[in-house]
Amino acid sequence: MKRLFLFAAILFCCVNSFAQKSDTLSITLEQVKYAYPVKYFPIQIEGQDLRMAYMDVAPTAKANGRIAVLFHGKNFGGYYWTNVIKILAENGYRVIVPDQIGFGKSSKAFIHYSFHQMARWNSQLLDSLKINKSIILGHSMGGMLATRFALLFPEKTEKLVLENPIGLEDYRAFVPYVSTEQQYKTELKTTAESVKKYYQNSYFTTWKPEYDELVEIAGGVTFSADYPRWAKVAALTFTMIYEQPVVHEFVNIKVPTLLLIGKEDKTIVGKGLLNAEDQKKYGQYKVLGKTTAAKIQGAKLIEFEGVGHIPHLEKPEDFFKALLENL
């Protein structure tokens, strides 16, 4: 009887522990509190009713009449823009921060993901808010989306700001192709531990305790029973990045453009598929920043020494100074 009771107690603890882990974070981040109120924009696509989360933050100082729209990277959502939102609002800007469909608090849909479609959804969101023109700031994958937005909607783009955008190379030229299904199997292997290792090795030159919050979010969803859906969407958007380059169209950008580049960034989408020699050959932002700026007529390049993939988190003071002085 004692053994039976002991076994039941152990089983209860194990089940309870698993339940707590499973509930750590839902794949729409209900438990993650964003710094500003979140609203939802309805979208219908491929017979599905979706929700696009966004923050609409009013200026906290005298309004300057200008609007900034922030596009997040692939492994993030609106939550990592908090310090940028605060600074812009304090300087009189209204700030719009969408979670793209498939990311953050937005719907995790099984659809064909397209930068063209994403750009159109963001255009529709801005139309619904009666915003005719805005500064479009994109980081990482958001830089690819911001570029596509500026190409499709130059009349709505006051200025294009690219913070360490991916897609400065055509990954199809040197990264081996993997199918969405193959990538899905890779995504399913993600753990909180592998997320932290990736962030440490890929995003920052020096790890700081405050970066752990990013890991808690990206790693927390791996405990969810719905994580396979998250992983599938991650694979679908990986394919989108690989198959829909913007690098060949930088010459077509007609709006004022600012490039903010951490020179120590070595990001390559699909880096793990490359041998050591090619990993050193590609993804060199200290070179890519200059070559990209040269392709965009009138573009201004500002580089940050000793900074990796996310300047607004790793060296915020320098990033804010460069941003505000050049808007």
Question: Can you tag this structure with a few keywords?
Answer:
single chain; 327 residues; alpha/beta; Rossmann fold; eight-stranded mixed sheet; 12 helices; 40% helix; Epox_hydrolase-like; signal; Alpha/beta hydrolase; AB_hydrolase_fold
Report on the structure:
The chain contains 12 helices and 8 strands. By secondary structure, the protein is an alpha/beta fold. It has a domain of 227 residues: Alpha/Beta hydrolase fold, catalytic domain (Rossmann fold). Strands 1-2-4-3-5-6-7-8 form an 8-stranded mixed sheet, with helices on both faces. Helix 3 crosses helix 4, helix 5 packs across helix 8 and helix 6 crosses helix 7. The protein starts with a helix and ends with a helix. GO terms for molecular function: monoacylglycerol lipase activity. Keywords: Hydrolase, Signal. This is Alpha/beta hydrolase.
CATH H-level homologous superfamily name of the domain at 33-180 and 247-325: Alpha/Beta hydrolase fold, catalytic domain
* Low-pLDDT windows of residues: 1-20
Distance between the termini: 73 Å
Helical content class? 40-55%
Classify the secondary structure makeup into a structural class.
Answer: alpha/beta
Number of strands: 8
Estimate what percentage of residues fall within beta strands: 15-25%
Largest sheet, in brief, is:
8 strands, mixed
CATH architecture of the domain at 33-180 and 247-325: 3-Layer(aba) Sandwich
Mean pLDDT: 93
What is the CATH domain class of the domain at 33-180 and 247-325? Alpha Beta
- Helical region count? 12
Write the CATH fold name of the domain at 33-180 and 247-325. Answer: Rossmann fold
Order of helices and strands: HEEEHEHEHEHHHHEHHEHH
CA-based shape? globular
Enumerate the strands of the largest sheet in spatial order, edge to edge or round the barrel: 1-2-4-3-5-6-7-8
What is the oligomer described by this structure?
Answer: single chain
- What is the CA-based Rg, rounded? 20 Å
